[in-house]
Amino acid sequence: MVPVVVLWAVLASAAAACALDLFTLWRHDDATLNVHVGDRVDYRSLTIDQGRRQSEVVRLQCVGEDAVAWVLELLPLVDDDSGLHPIPGEGWRLRLSRSAGENRGRFEDHVLGVEQWLDGEPRSVPMEEWRSDPLLQTILSSEFTPESCQDLGQTTRVVSGRDLLCDRVMLADRDTSLIELPRGNLLQVHVREVSASFHADIPFLGVAHAAERSETSSEIQPAGSRRAPPPRIRIETMELVDFGRDAKPWLGQG
């Protein structure tokens, strides 16, 4: 008999494989990639997973370009009495191929190189390492290819004192998988719904707000042979708190 804890680990890993990040909507028609040197977006994200809450604020900015790639910085932000500001000497620098604008393949395959900065010092990071880093996954964890898309009309979002009339959509996907166990099978059903608001003036993908609800449930076949793990529900929001065309290189500037 397979212990419940093992089944729970399988269920948890399936749910964690899909998470809301800055490029989740990269493939969506309303989210055309628009990048210029100086572009900056600051997002506050909140994750509620099995009663646990996690919040963070990150900045994505474009600080350079050449004929092949854009140079991006991903910076963790601190929110204190002086406002939002990056942590000195910490973050990631990426070279993102201009081929990312073609919306083909996997987003992470367009990343040409990655540097991690700690205490003001850079370190080149191999692909197998950066693909699993928690901060970097805020832009690289997944792309969403939904089964259905519903137009929800327009809504106004207020971002840093600016009223933005945004187009709003609801995207949904349902995935079923069958996992063979020593005695019987585990049927998993994963439902993922993402609502998003877009505005053309916002750099990168134009996302003003996004919210995701994902639920993974399971069923043991044949029924009664063992206990199935409880459903796993994950709720994430990603809210744009500021944006601009004023970005300057941060990493390596003292």
Report on the structure:
The protein is mainly beta. It has one domain. It is 8% helix and 52% strand. The chain has three helices and twelve strands. Strands 1, 2, 3, 4, 5, 6, 7, 8, 9, 10, 11 and 12 form a twelve-stranded antiparallel sheet that branches. Strand 6 and strand 7 form a beta hairpin. The radius of gyration is 20 Å and the shape is globular. The termini are far apart.
SSE order and pairing:
Elements: H1 4-16, E1 40-49, E2 52-65, E3 69-80, E4 83-86, E5 91-97, E6 111-118, E7 121-124, H2 127-130, H3 137-140, E8 148-159, E9 162-180, E10 185-198, E11 207-221, E12 232-244
Antiparallel strand pairs: 1-2, 1-12, 2-3, 3-4, 3-5, 5-6, 6-7, 8-9, 9-10, 10-11, 11-12
Instruction: Figure out the total of helices.
Output: 3
Number of strands: 12
List the helices and strands in order: HEEEEEEEHHEEEEE
Structural class: mainly beta
Spatial separation of the terminal alpha carbons: 58 Å
Q: Rg, please? A: 20 Å
Count of discrete domains: 1
Oligomer state equals single chain
Shape assignment = globular
Give unreliable regions as ranges: 1-19
Helical coverage, percent range: under 10%
Biggest sheet descriptor: 12 strands, antiparallel
Report strand %: over 45%
On the 0-100 scale, what is the average pLDDT?
Answer: 82
